Amino acid sequence: MDYNKIRHIGNIVRLEISDEDIDEVASRFEETMDFISKIGDVDTEGIDPAIACTSREHSFRDDKLLSSLPVEDVLLNTASRKYGYFSVIKFVE
Known about the structure:
mainly alpha
């Protein structure tokens, strides 16, 4: 895999990859992708797809209204707040 693709993937997942580490990262990434590609080689003929790993039915609990912390206590150590909520920078491109 070429270095531009490795750097692009690093940017997507917000990893800064140094020039010294790029060879090792590329090698490990290729090993990982080779391992993942082996899943397609598994013979699943005659095997029913699994909907769930267990036969247990879903069990849901009733919602209970509980007291919560005061807003001021929750926001006490935040760097930024707006309208009584945490305020963070936009991170979706």
